[in-house]
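User: Run a structure prediction on this.
Assistant: Running it now.
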Amino acid sequence: MQFGRKFPGEAAPPRLEPVLPPVTPPAGMAAIAPGQNATDFLRDQVLMRIEPAAAVHMTAQQLNARVNQLVTEIASAERLLLNQQEQAALAVSIVDDMVGLGPIEPLLRDESVADILVNGPRAIYVERRGKLELTSSRFRNDAHVLHVAQRIASSMGRRVDESSPMLDARLADGSRVNVIIAPLSLKGPCISIRKFSPNIMDFGKFVQLGTVSPALGRALEIAARCRLNMIVSGGTGSGKTTLLNALSRMIDRAERIITIEDAAELQLQQPHVIQLETRPANIEGQGQITQRDLVRNALRMRPDRIIVGEVRGPEAFDMMQAMNTGHNGSMSTIHANSARDALGRIENMVLMANVNLPMRAIRGQVASAIDLVIQTERMRDGVRRVVEVAEITGMEEETIVLGTLFTYRYRGEDTDGTLRGSFEATGGRPHFISRLEYYGLAGAFLEALGARASAAE
């Protein structure tokens, strides 16, 4: 009622009436709207009875207990046909909506899930063990998805709306998030989450998973220990960052390491690590700090090693400069389909830096900067494998020469769909043998290089 308003045909505003307590409908006579099911009705009733100011001061356990109590009371009073399990699931769902990310909150808690892909309100996919599967989770409608997207954006001091329909952000646990909404997305708001895994992989785990053989794992550990400059190449979701994390475990604890990323994912265990992260432009289009800005600044911070989470633009030129000026052992990842393609992409990125150098000079810098290119692939059985390890041996005229040290050979397929193959070493003598000898690990590397791993399980 709007007090003080003059209605048509009335000479004066209506008289103020005393506020009466709400009338409780008789049991079994709940006012469920047409087309509304019992679950939606219960959800609305619970949210109406919880005071937001009080809820924000509750712990998660207190809020969950209060919502459980309300669900039980309302369901009993209205004689709604929900069993105890359904009531408990509804209570969890309501709490996730209030303080979490709604239907995808349980997926964030599921350690077996690596990626969460929301394609509108009715299609939520996850990746488990390298394969995508459709889940039973659902949003109520497009507005529900958009509300969750805006909650993510606001937690980062950002926004997502029609004027700013794309968002790259990071959750509190480190998970990467991408959001795209209408009018750019024709299927409604879409959310893509690459979950941050607190479990740090090492080469022992990689051997168990079939990612590498024992000999290949040992060779890569030695390469990282001996401060070889390495590029990890592969497609989206092929395990590049996970492998880079494993390589970083071999870095000496006395070294000063600077990491540069768009969204912090690296989990270095050394005590002397400086983490730098890019900053997007604000809503006025100002204040952007790029990876190239950070690489340039890192060179003034007296690093022993520089690790760039992913090279994707003109910062490749500064990264090559760093590798060529005494920052041995630097590492990065790149999106490419093969080791040869990775070098081609780096050349193109260096050209993006508007350096006025002939192609031969650019390739010469790349050849002298990088020691190893490690190619990863997520294969059709869902297993991520290192399919090639190539060294750069120099230049022949204007062509960078690559030599393969290890390669994965496909042999067949088991009845359960798992691929069978072997990691084969060439047995040759690498061009960086002097670096290995300097660290006293040449013999161990040559032993790994001369071994042939057994077929991957």
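The first strand starts at residue 113 and ends at 119.
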